[in-house]
Amino acid sequence: MRQRSFRWVALACGVLLALWPATLRAQEPVAQPRTPVPPVTDADRAAAFPDVGDLRMHDNAVNYFVLLDQLEWQSVETGDGLNWDAKGWIGRDRDRFWFRSEGEAGDGRLENAEAHLRYGRAFARWWEVVVGLRQDVRPGPMQSWAAFGVQGLAPYWFDVEATVYVSDAGQTAARVEAEYELLLTNRLILQPLFEVDLYGKSNPARGVGAGVSQSEVGLRMRYEFRRKVAPYLGVLWSHAFGETADLAEAAGEEVDGVRFVAGLRLWF
């Protein structure tokens, strides 16, 4: 009997010894930090998220960029042709000189060619206003235009260019271009493009009529073996409107059509 009582007493003492440290910890007050964390103020939030879009800091170094966006063979109903579109700039972050050359050649002759030279000034994040000159070489006689417009990145990364032209003969014109680069993979890129031309009055010598003259929609798929070198395939849809379509039909040219293209894109 005594041995059994001794066992119960030993068991009770063991339980008390096991629970004693936890009881002491429960009775201890929670330690407070010696230096309490201050509450977040509006000044702290402003310092953590500064406004980086005010364009107050810029690099004064002179840089340049040249892009041969299109150098391609085109298949049309009347035969094969060559198309090019090259552009670039030189300057600083806010002030740049832009240049561009584009055109088409087929059957061993130059069918359409333009040259542009502009000055661009940044006025907002991703946007700049441009002024300059445009020289039409073909078709018809050479013609010079003064150019005024804006260009930049619209929301969702659409590359947009809108320009108004006034010629040395008093004619007016406008052109709107928009393109987008859809990354299917890190190297496979689909590039939709849309372009529309408008003229204030007719110019039969150059084959254009007043109003909406012509539009072009394109899809080009390129693969960037290297970021600076990318072959591509694509398809283009073009359409002439109104009096421009009438002038094209009278000259035996197509009013609308589909062209398949294959080319190379380079930049440096």
Structure explained in plain terms:
With 268 residues, the chain is an alpha+beta fold. It has 2 domains: 2-48, no CATH class; 68-267, Porin, CATH 2.40.160.40. It is 16% helix and 55% strand. The chain contains 3 helices and 13 strands. The chain has a 12-stranded antiparallel barrel. A hairpin with a 4-residue loop joins strand 5 (127-138) and strand 6. The N and C termini lie far apart (100 Å). The model has no long low-confidence stretch (mean pLDDT 85).
Please describe the topology of this protein:
Elements: H1 2-27, H2 42-48, E1 63-76, E2 79-91, E3 95-106, E4 109-124, E5 127-138, E6 143-154, E7 158-167, E8 172-179, E9 182-183, E10 188-199, E11 211-223, E12 229-240, H3 242-250, E13 256-267
Antiparallel strand pairs: 1-2, 1-13, 2-3, 3-4, 4-5, 5-6, 6-7, 7-8, 8-10, 9-10, 10-11, 11-12, 12-13
Range of strand content: over 45%
pLDDT average, as an integer? 85
Strand element count: 13
Number of domains: 2
CATH architecture heading of the largest domain = Beta Barrel
Uncertain parts: none
Keywords:
Porin, 13 strands, 2 domains, elongated, alpha+beta, 268 residues
Short description:
With 268 residues, the chain is α+β, with helices and mostly antiparallel strands. It has 2 domains: 2-48, no CATH class; 68-267, monomeric porin ompg (Porin, Beta Barrel), CATH 2.40.160.40.
